Amino acid sequence: MSPSSVTPRNVLFLLASSREGGNAEQLARKAAEALPPGTVTDWLRLEDSLVEPFRDLRHAPGGYTRPPPPELLALAERTLAADEVVIVAPVYWYNLPSTALAYLEHWSWWMRVPELRFAERMRGKVLSLVTAHSSEEDDSVATPSLMSLRMSADYLEMRWRGGLIGHGNRPGEVLQDTRALSAAREFLVRPLSVAKVEAA
Ligand SMILES: Cc1cc2nc3c(=O)[nH]c(=O)nc-3n(C[C@H](O)[C@H](O)[C@H](O)COP(=O)(O)O)c2cc1C
């Protein structure tokens, strides 16, 4: 596989932290700096688009009888326009933040909007995680987030790039994490075949 065949052309960064400019976002921006010229990057704060909670209407009479509201449809379309979706999400209680989980829940709705052809169009896209945590032990606190996204990627027959993990608590502390910064330089440009979880 040549590098050009795995380098994403249109990368959507979905910011899931409940604060702006935090560690996960700063690490993701470092990773984005390594993308080759011509790559289209799209940055979106999930909480701005998640205007209503997901409702499971799969088995309700008539199922999903109305289309998603414009904000959620726009989020679906931006997802579908991307070659790679990067979930930029700190560790919250050993898991993904609620905004990231809500985003994944909405996939279940979008899969049932026939015009979107969501599952069909997600197939083959790349999914990855950029995360940050403040554990003084190791990176195992990020394992549930990684597993959740990896298995979700498998379910939709997406490709899984892996995770980029940084350490920090106050905003900007991740910039002291030299291992994470080094990993960030190649995270989004390396061939997928060597995808693995980056320890920080
Ligand atoms: C609600 C909440 C839960 C958290 N849970 C954990 C945790 O389980 N493990 C951990 O190591 N850090 C935890 N943290 C710390 C954050 O992961 C850490 O501060 C991270 O750098 C925040 O990323 P951000 O700056 O991108 O928002 C938590 C922080 C918050 C606000």
UniProtKB/TrEMBL annotation:
The keyword Flavoprotein applies. GO terms for molecular function: oxidoreductase activity. The keyword Flavoprotein applies. Residues 10-146 form the NADPH-dependent FMN reductase-like domain. It comes from the Bacteria. Keywords: Flavoprotein, FMN. Pfam families: FMN_red. This is NAD(P)H dehydrogenase (Quinone).
